[in-house]
Structures are given as C-alpha cells and as structure tokens.
Amino acid sequence: MVAMELLDTAGQEEAIQREGHVRWAEGFVIVYDITDKGSFEDVLLYKNLLDEVKKPKNVTFILLGNKSDLDHCRQVSTAEGEKLATDLACAFYECSACTGEGNISEAFYELCREVRRRRMVQGKTRRRSSTTHVKQAINKMLTKISS
Ligand SMILES: Nc1nc2c(ncn2[C@@H]2O[C@H](COP(=O)(O)OP(=O)(O)OP(=O)(O)O)[C@@H](O)[C@H]2O)c(=O)[nH]1
Predict the structure, then answer these.
(1) Taking 80 as the threshold, does the pLDDT of residue 102 lie above it?
(2) Angle between helix 37-54 and 78-88 (nearest 10)
(3) Which of 29, 41, 50, 61 is deepest in the core (most CB within 10 A)?
(4) How many CB atoms lie within 10 A of CB 90?
(5) What residues form the membrane-spanning segments (predicted)?
(6) What is the DSSP string of 110-127?
(7) What is the CA radius of gyration of the chain?
(8) Please, what is the average pLDDT of the chain?
C-alpha cells in the first residue's frame, strides 16, 4: 500500500523553483497536451527546472501526453512522445483526463514503482557506505590497541 499526495504545480516556472513541495516530492508527472506542440517543447524546460531544484539527486518522473480524446487535433505523435521518453529514460503514457482513456492508473503505479526502486538503490548505497565507515573505525581502534 502506498499513500500518495498529489500536488499541481500550476505550470509556472517561478512556482516550480520557489515551492517547497517540489523539493519535497519524490516523483513527478510531466504532462503535455498532445494537441499543443508548444507544451511538448516545454517538457525539457520543466525537466531541467526539476533537475536544478532536486540536484544532486536524479529526478524520478514519468511523461504523460494528455488529451488523447482529441486525436483529430493532434500535433504531437505518439512516436515523438515515445522518443522523448526514451531520450529522458522515463516511462511514457498517453491518456485523457477528460474521458479516462489510456492507462492513467498504470502511469501512477509505474511512478510509485520507480520511486521505490530508487529508494532501494539509494538505501543499499547508504548501507554500504555506513558499513565501510564502521569497518574503518574498527580498523583504527585495532591499530591503536596494537601500537
Ligand atoms: N478534451 C480534453 N480536454 C482536457 C483534458 N484535460 C484537460 N482538458 C481541458 O483543458 C483545459 C485546461 O485544463 P487544466 O486542468 O486547467 O490544465 P492545467 O495544465 O492545469 O492548466 P494551468 O492551471 O494553467 O496549469 C480545461 O479546459 C480542461 O477541461 C483532456 O484530457 N481532454
């Protein structure tokens, strides 16, 4: 079971840089509108802003192309979305917040799974480094005792 708190950044750059919840959040959903090429071009901008706020940590995120119900007005192809997601090494979904089509639940499950995977990896790194510190301390003590 995972308890999620979802916050909307309202899309303003200054808000993303300023707001504490961006620093606090563990995972992000970057959303563009498939009928608006400009919103797709902004994805990189938002990714870079998140990188800036979260550094030195890597940003955990998924890419979501919204408004798939408006396929007749599409300006961004599915292939373009997939290509960007591959370049950014994140999961990609198309969906419609309006009709619910596309796999919105799966997108959020995947984001949760990715957050957990990264936590596990970071936990292992932390544990390994603390074991190293304990070993070094014991070695120091033994060296002192024997000298
Ligand atoms: N057809 C369709 N319209 C949508 C969909 N999602 C949102 N909209 C419409 O798009 C408009 C903008 O939606 P918002 O939820 O305000 O978008 P936003 O990105 O949060 O906007 P900001 O508040 O500026 O950040 C509204 O008129 C929504 O009804 C969708 O999946 N399909």
Answers:
(1) yes
(2) 10
(3) 61
(4) 19
(5) none
(6) HHHHHHHHHHHHHHHHHH
(7) 21
(8) 87
